[in-house]
Amino acid sequence: MTQEELDALMGGGIDLDDLEDEGKSEAGEEEASAPTQEQIDVATAIEESISEDTDTEDQPAGYSEETAHHWPLPATDENKMVHQLDDVTKESEEKATEIFDIIERISNDLMEKEDEAQKTIDTLTSNVTLFTTLSKKFPEVEAFSTSLTQNEEALVAAKDIIETMQNSGDEIMNVMDIMQYQDIHRQKIERVINVMRALSRYMNTLFEGRIDDDKRVSSAQHIVGDTHNDVASDDDIEALLAQFGN
After folding, report:
1. Whether 134 contacts 144, CB under 8 Å
2. pLDDT at 234 over 80
């Protein structure tokens, strides 16, 4: 048996039915006879071996469930790097826009309330001036002095409220400045994406061939000198073929 016939048999390039028919033709059989149980068992074993090779041909040597963490994830839509980075930039930009909108609404509300609080301060200031004058002219009237004290306390509280709102507005501006870094990060990720895409196009061009893959000769599954445990010897293959010829 030649090396080409061995490689074709192990790679699935030879049909077992053709081997059986060829063996019967060489033996001079005029009519096909029912295969023996031994021949059926041998054919089943070869088909199972070919099926196992087909099931694992997409997996690298040494890949298993125990060693899966040593290998990169499969190239699915969920694991493609550029897909994920595109999703990150898109979602981060959308969320950043939502955050900016919320911050802007809060800032506008604070400015509006600050204007209203300033009107309250102006009113309280007028009341303090009025009750101060009344208390001096009518010191025996206790209501004037009491109202004066209450308005003075309310004026202090109103000023504290305005100061707090102003500080909050300053903090919001700081948050908006910090959020600008999100746009810088998005630009960095987009730059990484562009570099990855450029490298991908370069590699595709570098490995481009003149012959389509479907028109290429299939590669041999096993070559002389391989040390893989699944490599069959010439004697084993000759013995299998001899059984089909009997």
Report:
1. yes
2. no
- Please tell me the distance from the alpha carbon of residue 232 to that of residue 241, in angstroms, as a whole number: 13
63, 71 contact by CB (below 8 A) = yes
Q: How many CB atoms lie within 10 A of CB 64?
A: 10
> What crossing angle do the helices spanning 37-55 and 16-26 adopt, rounded to 10°?
150
What sign does the CA torsion over 208, 213, 218, 221 have?
A: positive
Question: ∠ CA(185), CA(187), CA(188), 5° rounding?
Answer: 65
pLDDT tops 60 at residue 99:
yes
CB-based burial, 152-164: b 16+ in 10 Å, e otherwise: bebbeebbeebee
- Token pair for residue 80? 């493609």
Digit-coded pLDDT (tens) for 191-225: 999 998 999 899 988 888 888 877 776 665 666 66
| 235-243, Cβ contacts within 8 angstroms, sequence gap of 24 or more | 237/1, 237/6, 237/9, 238/1, 240/42, 240/46, 241/1, 241/19, 241/23, 243/38, 243/39, 243/42
Q: For tokens 């730059």, what's the residue?
A: 191
Residues contacting residue 232 through CB under 8 Å, at least 6 positions apart: 6, 10, 222
